[in-house]
Amino acid sequence: MASNSTKLGSSSSSEWTRGEDKMFERALAVYDTDTPDRWHNVARYMGGTKSVEEVRRHYQLLVRDVAQIESGRVPFHWYAAAPPPRTLQRG
Description:
single chain, 91 residues, two-stranded antiparallel sheet, 44% helix, elongated, RADIALIS-like, Homeodomain-like_sf, Myb-like domain-containing protein, SANT/Myb, DNA-binding transcription factor activity
């Protein structure tokens, strides 16, 4: 990606920087699914840069993206440092 910000899904209403994504991931680890007012806490963890609705939507898009990756609908890109699977040899 050419820019320093990323969007999850094509319908995201706000852009998130890589730093914000990392902060969001840490917040999800701190405030798990059993946490009361989880999305309010996550939004507060983001330092006021994202609303409750933005963090909730970002999570929904993340879940959808992970499901697509796990189902094989998103191609895995091979880079020069890692050969494609057909050239890997088992030892």
